[in-house]
Amino acid sequence: MHPLLVGILGTFGGFCGDAVWFAIGWRSADAIRRSAAWRRVGPTVERLVARFGPRQILLARPVWGTRVATMLFWGTQRLAPARFVALDLPACTVWAILLVSLGYYSSVSVEALLGKVRRAEEWLAVAILIAVAAALCGHLFLRARAASRLEK
Prior knowledge:
The chain has 152 residues and is mainly alpha-helical. It has helices at 3-27, 29-34, 36-52, 56-59, 67-76, 81-151. The mean pLDDT is 85.
């Protein structure tokens, strides 16, 4: 696949996943706020979010384990969908570009490494064939020698 196409698909795939969690938070906001889990952690999360505001959506991607919770949270806060798109789509685009670039450029290194491994495998295969041939010749020689001793 062409890297540009992979980047575009990655961007929209990530955005669609985020939009689903945002919509779940939006539609289930009242039920989520009444839950025991929200009563335990809700005030703490809201205090932390007050520091960054909706820009936290931009930071949710690189911090492992926060993306889904962030999208769900901002859905429960009834963030305007247009604002969500304006914040999340660029974040998804940057993240997709980083991952596609990393994969594309590291694949060149992997190809070079695999080429070296393939040459090493060829040398190893030749060495094994020589060792098997030597062992077979040695076995036949010892067998012939033992047969000649028995005849004497």
